[in-house]
Design goal:
The complex is a heterodimer of chains A (333) and B (212). Chain A is an alpha/beta fold and 333 residues long. Chain A folds into two domains: 8-183 and 320-331, Dihydroxyacetone kinase, domain 1 (Rossmann fold, 3-Layer(aba) Sandwich), CATH 3.40.50; 185-313, 2-Layer Sandwich (Hypothetical Protein Tm841, Chain: A,domain 3). Helix content of chain A is 32%, strand content 23%. In chain A, the strands form three sheets. Chain A has a six-stranded mixed β-sheet, sandwiched between helices. In chain A, strand 10 (254-261), helix 7 (267-283) and strand 11 form a beta-alpha-beta unit. In chain A, helix 2 (84-94) packs across helix 3 (108-123) and helix 4 runs antiparallel to helix 5. The radius of gyration of chain A is 19 Å and the shape is globular. The N and C termini of chain A lie far apart (41 Å). Chain B is an all-alpha fold and 212 residues long. Chain B has a single domain, classed as DhaL domain (Serine Threonine Protein Phosphatase 5, Tetratricopeptide repeat), CATH 1.25.40.340. Helix content of chain B is 68%, strand content 2%. Chain B has helices spanning 5-21, 23-33, 38-56, 61-75, 80-94, 103-121, 131-146, 151-167, 192-207, and strands at residues 3-4, 100-101. The longest helix of chain B has 19 residues, at 38-56. Classes of the chains: A alpha/beta (333), B mainly alpha (212). Chain A binds chain B through residues 33, 54, 76-85, 107-109, 112-113, 115-116, 138-140, 144-146, 149, 197, 199-200, 204-205, 217, 219-222, 224, and chain B through 27, 31, 33-37, 40-41, 44, 73-83, 120-121, 173-178, 180-183, 185.
């Protein structure tokens, strides 16, 4: 393993210390239990928006704490969901009296830990709603699986919900924005390489030089199919097809196209992916009205990409365009 | 004879040891069908439990188990934290105030732990989870009580049943947890959660083998 770290067990703590030094104007970092909150919170009368998950997906979620997006983020160990005491303390810290929304990615551990935290917070008199994102079309959604994973749509939902909360919408209304994003967004990912979890020390899986893994998640967990590497245009077609066929899009629908890097793929390749995805969307009569391109929900140093399409309406467009000021996403300010 | 408070403490210490020894093995099993963190997470949790031992060594068995559960919930993360946390919390709720356990006390505690895990994880037998090791272990314990087996023999039978349940997860297709994302590709691998459950129950049989 070659990594720019000191000791594997110190990775999360030292990352948080770096974030605190770098972004002290925007966020405050709490330790034991670990969570990151907006420096200017809690904001009276505003719904608190919280997310959390394993570390290793940066900038998600800690990099999205700040005005117009998250009020708090709870980082777990690398690829491990955070614990209920983190979410409980974060929920208490951001509660401005209007309730708190938990945005939870659909993973068994995340769901259980957030559920326990929500129970504890409600017992302390804080109104909590939780919305689970599950946008990964690579996973068959059936009674016989844990359901689709929460991936790219989570980033977009955090932006939209943060903006809705800034407008002082009610907890139910902010949660509705999240549910809408969850219902109208779909994602599919792929990997060229595995990644190495620091405390494991070797790659999570072997992927030969001439092979790729389609339907990968964001934890180096194997995908559904392994096949010989193809030119990028063909790969983008393989990713776009299941997304487009999953939602009943109509010709003329407006969409946000999000091309995400998994951590080890450079922007030059992400733009080549965007080019083809944009053309495919056009061919289906979809109008790409907004985009996001870059490494926003990563899987350590994995090379690969995920493509997310989110069907937009006027309200969502306004929420997307609203000002945001976080370490990882910033515009309009 | 019965399982004393000192026996209970010795079991928790033995579990911490066996989890530490098998940490890499558990993580390797998890890497095959999950996300390669089960061993490291459980090891971090039980190290924290060991640090709590001085505070609880003079308490009743219920308090020892409940403190173990609360510590796991706040240190393990993943699915293992809530599941094993619930396991020990439920076992502790059944043994509150007790300074020693009969075999049926232990069986009730373990059955309650199983109910808690089923409630929290919503898994069923055959879903390729820790439930597949825990359920046969509880059943074997109940059968051993019916057959009037001594404690150490009953615990041995229970651990053997857990082992068979763990090995029985190999051909299964996962229906819960991260392994379920793999569909058919999860078959052929032993479930890491069922494996840690076997290790924990086997540690009880080993630690309490003199308790007849």
């Amino acid at each position: 393993m070659k990594k720019l770290i000191n000791k594997p067990e110190d990775v999360v703590r030292e990352e948080l210390e770096g974030i605190a030094y770098a972004h002290g104007d925007l966020v405050k970092v709490h330790y034991d239990p670990n969570f990151i909150v907006r420096a200017d919170g809690p904001i009276k009368g505003k719904v608190g928006v919280i997310s959390g998950g394993g570390s290793g997906h940066e900038p998600m979620h800690g990099g999205f704490v700040g005005m117009g997006m998250l009020d708090a983020a709870c980082p777990g160990a690398v690829f491990t969901s955070p614990t209920p005491d983190q979410m409980l303390e974060a929920t208490k810290a951001v509660n401005g009296g209007a309730g708190v929304l938990h945005i939870v990615k659909n993973y068994t551990g995340d769901i259980m830990n957030f559920e326990m935290a929500a129970d504890l917070a409600r017992a302390e008199g804080i109104e909590v709603e939780a919305v689970v994102t599950d946008d990964d079309v690579a996973v068959k959604d059936s009674l016989y699986t844990a359901g689709r994973r929460g991936v790219g749509v989570t980033v977009l939902a955090e932006k939209l919900c943060g903006a809705a909360a800034e407008q002082r919408r009610s907890l139910k209304d902010v949660a509705d924005v999240c549910r809408k994003a969850k219902n109208l967004g779909r994602t599919m990912g792929m990997a060229l390489t595995s990644c190495t979890v620091p405390h494991v020390g070797k790659p999570t899986f072997d992927l030969p030089e001439d092979q790729m893994e389609i339907g990968i998640g964001i934890h180096g967990e194997p995908g559904r199919v392994r096949m010989p590497l193809k030119p990028v245009d063909e790969i983008v077609e393989m990713l776009m097809e299941p997304i487009i066929s999953d939602i009943p899009y109509k010709s003329g629908d407006e969409v946000l196209l999000f091309v995400n890097g998994m951590g080890g793929t450079p922007l030059v390749e992400l733009y080549i992916i965007y080019r083809k995805a944009y053309e495919i969307a056009n061919k289906h009569g979809l109008k790409v009205v907004r985009n996001l391109i870059g490494p926003y929900i990563t899987s350590l140093e994995m090379a690969g990409t995920s493509i997310t399409l989110l069907k937009m309406d006027d309200d969502m467009l306004k929420l997307w365009d609203a000002p945001v000021k976080t370490p990882g996403l910033r515009w309009g300010v | 004879m019965s399982i004393t408070r000192d026996d209970a403490l010795a079991w928790i210490k033995a579990v911490a040891g066996v989890i530490n020894t098998n940490s890499t093995y558990l993580t390797q099993l998890d890497a095959a069908i999950g996300d390669a963190d089960h061993g490291a997470n459980m090891d971090r949790g039980f190290k924290a439990v060991l640090n709590k031992m001085p505070e609880i060594s003079d308490k009743d068995i219920g308090t020892i188990f409940k403190t173990t559960g609360m510590t796991l919930i706040s240190t393990v993360g993943g699915a293992g934290g809530p599941l094993y946390g619930t396991f020990f919390l439920q076992a502790g709720t059944k043994t509150v105030g007790k300074m020693e356990l009969s075999l049926s006390d232990w069986a009730e505690a373990l059955e309650s732990a199983l109910s808690g895990v089923l409630m929290r994880g919503k898994a069923e037998l055959g879903d390729k989870t820790m439930v597949d090791a825990l359920t046969p272990a509880v059943n074997a314990l109940k059968q051993a009580i019916k057959d009037n087996q001594p404690i150490n023999k009953a615990l041995g039978l229970s651990a053997e049943a857990a082992k068979a349940g763990m090995e029985g997860t190999i051909p299964l297709v996962a229906r819960k947890g991260r392994a379920s994302y793999l569909g058919e590709r999860s078959a052929g691998h032993q479930d890491p959660g069922a494996t840690s459950t076997y290790l924990i129950l086997n540690a009880a049989a080993e630690t309490w083998k003199e308790v007849a």
